[in-house]
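Changelog-adjacent note: as of this version, every example in the card shows the full chain rather than a window. The one below runs 456 residues end to end.
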Amino acid sequence: MLPLVEFPELVRHYAPHFAHVFSSDAWVEFERYISGLIVSENKTVEGINRLFVHESRNQSSLNRLLTASPFSLTELNQARLDLLASLPGTCPKPRGVLSVDDTLLTHYGQHFEQIAKLYDPAQECYVWAHDLVTVHYSDDDTDYPLLFQLWKPVDLERLEQGLKTEAPGKWRQYLLGVWRRKQNQPGVAPLYDSKLRIAEHLLQQWVQTHPGLDLPVTFDNWYTQPAFCRFVGQTLGLAFVGTLAADDQVVLKTGVEPLADFAARLKAEHLEALARHRPPLFQRITVSYKRERETYYSYCRTHRIHNFGKLRLVINHRHADLSDAPVFYIANRLHWQATGITRIRRHRWPVEVYYEEGKAEGLDQYQLRDFGAIERHIALVAVVYSLLRAAQHDPVLRARLQRELKLELEGSTAFWRRATQAQSLWSLALFISAGLAQGQTLHQVMAPLLQAICHA
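Full-length structure tokens:
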């Protein structure tokens, strides 16, 4: 545990951008909380509160920031996005990409509001978790979450009352089936927000607030469902790149064929064409991603996909002999080529990195029971991640820290988190040095630090 004798320079540099969101007292708690999320290894309210020598307060003050402070999550998120938009390196750009994804915030025990038993594909079992849906921005210079929302389990009593119907037998399964069939009806849609509907709301919010920024959307196989694709492409008018599974079907003149079989047949025809010195079916392409060059071997044609309609289909391999498993992408822009489609789909990966690094910043490390407090915690973690992203592209802050630390500061968000911890360590050393220079004994200087570490 590293005691904090002052707020980290990164926090002091960026905190004024958020001052209008909070009352004066809550703003100090905001600074304390995000400082702790960056510096502390223990991301709980108790763990963060125990860090402070400077601005040492009762833990209840920090609790109130999350449970009772009347600040607006919408204003907080807008202040975060305004800060990112003010820096050339982090502002949204025409070649940027939006990605849609969700992650499980796992907990042991069920004593959290709106927690549910959900299937975790990584562990291949059901776990108690909240589910966070995110629309994420990515370009070659940066990435960060734009909008996000926690999914809530269905309220079956409310759903039953809203549908006003009767059903035999397995009532809960029946209700959910009825809801899925009628979810687009005006009276039914507001009754329950699935992850797909949350994603639709978030994308619609983005389009409404950024009408001049026409960015494509990409998503994995779970979100690549016909209704969601139609909403993105037709209702919102956005380009999209989705992901198909091997058992999805392509409609050919000869009939309907699973993509796995179609790809295997194309592979055989491709290898035969190479052996006969004929034009290959899979073309070698080079894709630029995060200023690196990546090579793929791609088949790209317009096909009719079962339940989706006519779309651009891309089948990619990484090996020249096509020995690796194929991946399948679809796009609703029929003039697009494999290079552009693959580049857009490649920008889905940063949301996974955000979830991983965000969890290092405490995304899933809360012990809060109240659902509103959990939402605030997640919003503040997004602030921390965004500040670390902004620091990568902020020459003023970089120059200031380089002068203080005598280090070259270039790197990822994880690097900037360590750099902030290093700067806090340097501030602690200066605090001790100043105390000794003023004639205090080592014990007198260390007393408040020892108390901060030992105090529970």
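Structural remarks: The mean pLDDT is 89.
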